[in-house]
Please model this.
Amino acid sequence: MLVADSPALHDALEYAGRPKQLLVGGKWTDARGHATTQTENPMTGGILAALAEAQPEDVDTAVAAARQALDDPAWVGLRPRERAALLFKLADAIEARLDEFAALESLDSGKPLRNAANVDIPQAVDHLRYFAGWVTKIEGSTITSNVGDYMIYTRREPVGVCGLIVPWNYPLLLTMWKLAPALACGNTVVLKPAEQTSLTALRLGELICDLDFPPGVVNILTGRGEVTGAALAAHPGVDKISFTGSTDVGKLIAAAGAGHLTRVSLELGGKSPNVVFADADLKAAASGSAWGIFYNMGEDCCAGSRLFVQEQIYDEFIEQVTDVARSIRVGHPFEAESQLGPLVSSTHQARVTGYVSGAIADGARVVSGGGRPGHLGDGPGFYFEPTILADVTPDARIVREEVFGPVVVATPFSDDEDAVRLANDTIYGLAAGVWTQNLGRAHRFAHAVRAGTVWLNDFGPADAAAPFGGFKQSGYGREHGGEALNLFLETKSVWVNLAS
Model:
């Protein structure tokens, strides 16, 4: 079947072309002044959708609706098993429409349809079900008093109105990283999807309206970060902001929340080291290292963008990684053979191109890739081939800064101490990988590297049960697992004077 004849693509394009509104207080409404912003089609470069752009006044209205829903007996009065049942029902509704959500995600972001269908949407459903299972297990504790005849117990209560700001690389999946625990804990939310990739969030809003969610529990505001996101982050009525995105924007979010002491958690950028020792299974390491950076077009905050290889196997291993890189099929996301699609936007394509061009100008050697895939010619779409660079200095911009594209920088190292030093030589600390058959060496590296997640003989898997977050300028707070609940709960101590 030709891509042009794909029913999934046709239906996704039809949905993208419909008028878009904001979800506020259980109703779909236009933005103030009918303001809109346009998104690009990553495959053609044309206009994909016109989204409503929430203005500060719309943020006021959405926050007020979320605040009112906090006191609504239809929400706050739900027993834990009833709230859990509502989340399970939403998970079932998404799963029943997996193909539809996958097509929208692929169209919007440029990722291969098969990735969206086999990874992104199923994992989003898994996250929702995981946290739905936590609802009936959120409990306080009793404390033995040391100061008198008291019974002391604690309650775990929702933090309140939560602003959830989501990036564009895994739109629905990262929405669920935030929405699922926030709702599991009994909060109400104002969700701000990325302006580049809002389609699955809007479709999610339609499902929420069709189910039994009380109005105002989930509000969805589309719009640019500098307009809608900025107003949400600085809003005095928001009790909690959860943000995933770049470190530079994360600093702005933290500063905006500081004025009202808004609770903030940040999952930010990375420049993750991937370290390969000479005793590693080189075939497995080559495949894992290639996909650790090139998967999802390198548009991944924990991508292994700094590849460190022990010097005695450096040339051999880089050749193996290059073979994998050159075998990766870049093409239209709706083609079954495509393993990588286009980058998300023309702006991002220019950013990635600029980093590579700058590195080459500074003396970097292109081992493989470096630009648009040759087999695609000068056609449309924001495509970029898997790229391996070598012969760069430690202070080079492409070594220090996050490219967020399919570009890896390869560097040799000498021994264990050198590997740890190079791995930690970054302002980031989101993730790291190490490949070795020496168990002691693997654990020593895992303990020494300053990163929130360390993979041993692997790179990139995630699980709703495993905490995820960063050290240093990769942010603070942990998503996933029981620790994620702490982001969305307050602890209250209650004292009972038994003597009286």
